[in-house]
Amino acid sequence: MLIPAKFKVTDQTVLAQFIQDYPLATLAASSADYVNAVHLPVPVLLSENESGEIRLLSHIAHNNDFLTQVENNQDILLIFNGPHAYISPNFYPSKTKTHKAVPTWNYSVVHVRGKIAFHRDHDWIYNVIEAMSAFYEQQSQTTPWSITDAPMDYIEKMIKAVMGIEITVESMVGNFKLSQNKNAEDYSGVLDGLLKSDKMSDQALLDHMKTFNK
Question: Which positions ≥6 away from 100 have C-beta within 8 Å?
Fold first, then answer.
């Protein structure tokens, strides 16, 4: 994808945190017939072995046709999207002086390229599900749910219904288009414009801009 220099993010720590914050990914891969895509949470990042490879772990339903069209060790693309919103020219104070302003859209996205591997091993899938649920339960629940809370025969049934996914990351890059190309006055105008909005998406973008550009 085309990424202007002002918006390009390559800091792996920043990108990893973004994935943890916005883990619902679009997983895309091409087959002989067409490009297929699925949507699934990919929240677990692990640095493995001496080479420092980063792996992204998740799972997918056995009956998803994606599995019939993608092979082990195939190249894939993961897309992670953060908050986004329409930006009106009315947000820019400079508009009243020059009228040189047009609408735009602010957003953040991370593209991850790598190789995919599928896992059928029971323990591998169990451990991934346990790690994924524990991570988010601990963030949101005063009494976190544990995989051991559910009947074992029920968990076994769920595990048999999914396939494990492991993606070895080859590259990660972010396009964080958050008005960094505007002067201080117009940038503040964007923040003020979003602040006055009652849309949840605008407030989410406002918080993201304040965090990233602080």
Answer: 94
